[in-house]
Amino acid sequence: MSIARWPEGERPREKLLAHGPAALSDSELLAIFLRTGMKGFSAVDIARQLIQDFGSLSNLLSTSQKDFEARRGLGSAKYAQLMASKELVRRALIEEMEQREIMSDPLTVRNYLRLAIGGRDIEVFVVVFLNIQNHVLAVEELFKGSVAEARVYPREIVRRCLEHNAVGVIVAHNHPSGVSEPSHSDRVLTNLLKAALDLVEVRLLDHFIVTGQYAESFAERGWL
Questions:
Q1: Is 101 helix (H, G, I), strand (E, B) or coil?
Q2: Could you tell me the fold of the domain covering 3-87?
Q3: Consecutive 10-residue runs of the chain (224 residues): their mean pLDDT?
Q4: Nearest-angstrom CA–CA distance, 111 and 40
Q5: The domain 100-217: what is its CATH number?
Q6: What is the rounded distance in angstroms from the CA atom of residue 146 to the CA atom of residue 124?
Q7: Cβ partners under 8 Å of residue 161, min gap 6
Q8: Whether pTM exceeds 0.85
Q9: Cβ distance 117 to 173 under 8 Å?
């Protein structure tokens, strides 16, 4: 049945306006984005199937255009809308980090990192540069590599810190495998990077291992 024929209180758009977005399920929110269904399937049916096919909303937001458009009824216009929505959220999170003392708001950092690199299919290494008030000066994706590894050069991070006049950094990289547990090489790299930054009096505040679902903190484990 078409959503237009549903009782008004059950239609996703009307439900959102009456009760706020938190009252909607993932499928209902995605249905508002999709706007229309197909013959025999409502927008909510299609949204529910998409989330099931991709495994999660996070995976859907990180999918390639080819995989997205392989689904019946979805084309380049819908993919462009989806990527635009994702980019708006990413930019809003950067604005939040720029305006707040970042160490007092770790959830925003986690959400940003998960959205920015959690679903990437190759390993990438990101540096968040901070001033003395722990406000964000810049966020840069400095290194990228294969599915398994991105080659990281501490001296390049030190150079960028000096150029930004940063006094602190948060670093992060993703694990395309979906496993957020830090490896032995992750710990070795963190120690090397901390030693290099100490020489120029820049604090390494945290290192996050990021997946689509989680961001594991070295600082919270007491490793920094």
A1: coil
A2: DNA polymerase; domain 1 (1.10.150)
A3: 62 86 87 76 83 83 85 83 83 75 76 86 93 92 78 94 97 91 94 96 96 90 92
A4: 36
A5: 3.40.140.10
A6: 9
A7: 129, 169, 197, 200, 202
A8: no
A9: yes
